[in-house]
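Section handout 9: paired folding examples.
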Amino acid sequence: MLNVAVIGMGWWGKTLVTLIGNSSKLRVVKGVKRNPKTEAEFAREHKFEIISDYSAVLKDPDIQGVVLCTPHTLHTEQIIDAANAGKHVFCEKPLSLTHSDVVRAVDAINKNKATLAVGHERRFEPPILDLMRTINSGELGTPLQIEANFSQDKMLALPLDNWRLTPEEAPAGPMTATGIHILDLAVGIFGEAESVVCNVKQLGSRLSNGDTLAALVSFRKGGHALLTAILATPFDGRFAVYCNKGWIEVRDKAHPATPEGWTLTQVVSGDKRTTREYPPASSVLTNLEAFADAAEGGAPYPVTQKEMIADIAALEAIIESARTGQRVIVQ
């Protein structure tokens, strides 16, 4: 059982606490919030201590890991501080906002022989796992292009001064909220990105740094990804990979935070279209438990550090392309 502290008690931090309460692999023993009194009742209900001091968590010998649900610009230094204190780290996406920062964070993790995991729960959805296995088997031939969409309107309920909506924390509008998930899946298929072109506009909401994103990502070993992320329309989620012998697509039935299942569709050249229905499953908890397993010496965490770094390198280029309107080469 891995004892963890959850850092950041906003809506997502509390969601993770609730999910971890159903786990036999990790346990929340402490939480951190700038004003702990506001979540004192929640902490009592879930039987953990809530404090305001992150450094006190890092000094606590009974805590083996931290779960970071904090603003994106804080992630790098919080990861480094945790690693230097000998703690394993599960960090919500994105790990960092720049390539240089994520490299510093990963270096600190490796120097201290800690485990690093990231909140890319889409990687752990059963149909996505099957999609990845099918692509890797070669059954559909060479991957050519990805089309993916992750849109939602949950952010419209947030106050406009919420950190998740600020230019500093969400510099390419929907990219850090939802687009990063489908970018990560594309990296899982194609590897490191080579160049990006991205456009973000404010079209259907009061979200001043943009609610509608379109990005074209080209990859070093070939292939493209066409990514769409919108924050001003009801939820839709789709991830499709087109290959030279067929194609495969996963469609979500509901938002990953409250899954209702998925539909996987596959076509092989010369054969009829086939579909498979998947029941709901908590990929968020599966991801957290994979972190716990890796931290305690079990199976390695399945998202590699090379992929984590590639995600952020591509994200940084997308942010720059959205700002300038130009094609940007990925570091």
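Moving on to protein 2 of 2.
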Amino acid sequence: MIEITNHLDIKQWSEFVHSHSHGNIFQTPEIAEVYKRTKNYEPITLAAIDTKNDEILAVLQAVVIKEMSGFLGTFSARSIIQGGPLFIDGEKGIKALKILMEYYNKIARKKAIYTQLRNTWDTSAIYDVLNKMGYEYEEHLNFLMDLNCSKEILFSKLKRDKKRAIKKAKERGVKVVKEDKTALPIFYEILQETYDKAKLPLADISLFEAVFDILVPNNMANLYMAKYNNTYIAGRITLNYRNVIYDWFGCSSQDYLSMYPNELIVWHVLEEGIDNGYKVFDFGGAGKPDKEYGVRDFKKRFGGKPVNYGRYCKVHSPTKMKIAEKGFKLYKRIK
């Protein structure tokens, strides 16, 4: 018999994710704790258990994100499942997945306007399962960098403009350093500037404080900052799990873009990744293929492998969804 629980044994959960062929940081107990400590974030942690032997058959780590607290926050509430659900192979795994998602949907429709599954691998095998539950698939791109090579070979894969940008940044005296929590306020200030320019809402600083408290001590995250004349001009937070580095949050000061700090930080992370035995650098998404996206152009020039694992979306409240979409358009106009 399969039973759904939200009380997982941490050790058992951690081992399940770590040993899974598609295990990733976004389905771990550590990221759940980060979400738990973040303002306006609410984690949803569920697992399908075989009651005969207490074996985990499937795990789902979601997070409900609101842009503000209180009643108005319900009109921005969305649930994100990144890199999940994870389930065992075979018919038993598919059965567990169905039961798990049905249980999750009952919870999510009370907490979020919609759910988005952000795939980190090819999920075509479960397309029918999710589609029958009302999840619609949409294309979404990403780039993966192969770090299982020498730095010289990796550099040769970069497009000419990126090679030139990295060389110019070094010639102009830009340095990249790995920083501790004391640099977080400066990073967040630059990040706020970047998000304001893009007219996008930004997570509360408590998200990044939790990353330093939970992930950094376990070598699961790093903060890199670019400096010019002792001034911080750009930053990037990466997440690390097994043999993968995930590009998570990046930012740069508009006044120093001519110094090419973004290119230099990415290259520094790639070099360090090779030195430390990582195999893949995951650029963390590159938008929809049919829509222009400047960030995609930046990432593409590093010569990574393009993938289209896509996303699934299920709207739980069509009325609130329409209100939220109008509200976001107004937000962008005001910003």
